[in-house]
Amino acid sequence: MREAANWHDAFDLTETEHIALVGGGGKTTTLWSLGRELAQRGPTIVTTTTKAGAPPADVALVEWDRPLPDRSLHELVADALQRSALVAVGSGVRDARLRAVTPEIADELFFRCGANYVVNEADGARMKPFKAPAEHEPVLASTTTLLVVVIGIDALDAPIDEEHVHRPERIADLTGAKLGDTLSAARIAAIVNEYEARCEDVDESARFAVLINKCDEGPQDARVSAITAALRDVELSSLVAASQREETRRWRVR
To answer: pTM of the predicted model, to two decimals?
Structure first.
């Protein structure tokens, strides 16, 4: 285990990436933290194929509510990238949420809109630390190069119910648990495996990673060890622990 200097180091990112964030436990916080860091390296677009927190006021916004791209999308994004190295693209902003674009638009943003990096929030968790994907989730673009499952460490040993997790019935169905049972590390690993199985629509070269978030007691927290042990048989390109409460710190666990 080692402390990573930044997200780029933690996830072994290349100079061009299309990153999809899924799961729970602070995806939107990670979305903007990752976007701001990557924008220091090159033009970066933050988007969502579901919903995400509204972009901060200093981030250039492009609204595109059509299902397919055309030249005017390229022009809008090019203009925004001239004003800011970090651009948000969504179908609109309503109720303090950035609204979804289609996977086809997310692909276009990565392929033809001049960005080195695209960061996509690809499913929602209603601010819960853990979730299981619905049948239609995650909503992944085919050009995704890295899928990161975000887990809030506070989900471990919580009851599988509406108060503590998103889609508790799906978690129960996929893990053989009952509603109200404890969310064990083994059950967390089963859901991570389910996410990995849903990567069929992305390129076979895409990598799969896990971020254990809210590790405010550091990587020595016994809960990090428990989740890490449960994930030992899951093929991951990286396993990262992070705290983003005050200052952001990240540790490469595996």
So the answer is: 0.97
Per-residue tokens: 96: 């303090």
Instruction: Express each pLDDT in 226-242 by its tens digit.
Output: 999 999 999 999 999 99
Give the C-alpha separation, 91 to 76, whole Å. 13
| Residue 39 CB contacts under 8 Å (≥ 6 apart), including other chains | 84, 85, 86, 117
Question: CA end-to-end span of the chain, whole Å?
Answer: 7
* Segment 182-211 mean pLDDT: 94
Contacting residues for 186 by C-beta, under 8 A, at least 6 apart: 175, 230
Among left, alpha and beta (phi > 0; psi -120 to 50; other), residue 229 is alpha
Those residues with Cβ within 8 angstroms of residue 164's Cβ, 6 or more apart along the chain or in another chain = 128, 129, 130, 155, 158, 183
φ and ψ at residue 175, rounded to 5 degrees = -110, -5
Say which amino acid occupies 172.
A
From CA 70, how far away is CA 96, in angstroms rounded? 27
Pick the CATH number of 2-252 from 3.40.50, 2.40.10, 3.30.1330, 2.40.128: 3.40.50
Tell me the C-alpha distance between 73 and 76, whole Å.
Answer: 5
87 near 45, Cβ under 8 Å? yes
CA-based R_g, the chain, Å: 17
**Hunting for tokens 């550091």 — which residue is that?**
218
